[in-house]
Nicotinamidase (Gelidibacter sediminis), 202 residues
Amino acid sequence: MKTLLIIDVQNDFMPGGSLPVAEGDTIVPVINAMQPKFDLVVATQDWHPQDHISFASNHEGKSVFEEIELHGKSQTLWPDHCVQGTKGAEFHPDLDTTQWEAIFRKGTDKAIDSYSGFYDNGYLKSTGLAGYLREKGVSQLYLCGLAADICVYFSTYDAFKEGFACFFVEDASQALDQEVYKELRKEMEYLGIQMISSKDIQ
Ligand code: VGL
Ligand code: ZN
């Protein structure tokens, strides 16, 4: 069961959105072109309540992109983004969703952030994605989306730890911070995650 997991290809992460990833929109045609090569396509959607803890606006006197300590861990404070039910939380309008079998929402608990599509950042709660993929008989998991250095990275890391053979589709992903991505890319290669181009997919 060759499976594609599309991470957070949502309006707020596009140029013009509230937490834009440079050239985030360029991955949409790449993702659309490769979807038919997969037996199963699943997506994640960042889906925050307005009072979410990761929003700087919910912390008096704090500014966006500031780091704070939360439950003993570092948390970046983001601009308000992907608020449940808003246009910014919707998938990019040109993204073909017709083949998708399921959408896993994350970041729904106001008290904890969730970068990975599998677990929240404290590994307290599961989204059920790993169990779903296992039940479907998934062995090879291809990942792509936004942002390459945040949610796609953390999802890939968790998928790898869950025992899936992971393929990170680089031309179907874009990073928020290129320098951070360069380091994470090395780590993923070291772990045995395959860094590939969509052209390599049969
Ligand atoms: C993301 C920051 C905050 C992402 C989500 O999808 O990469 N980044 N929430
Ligand atoms: Zn978020």
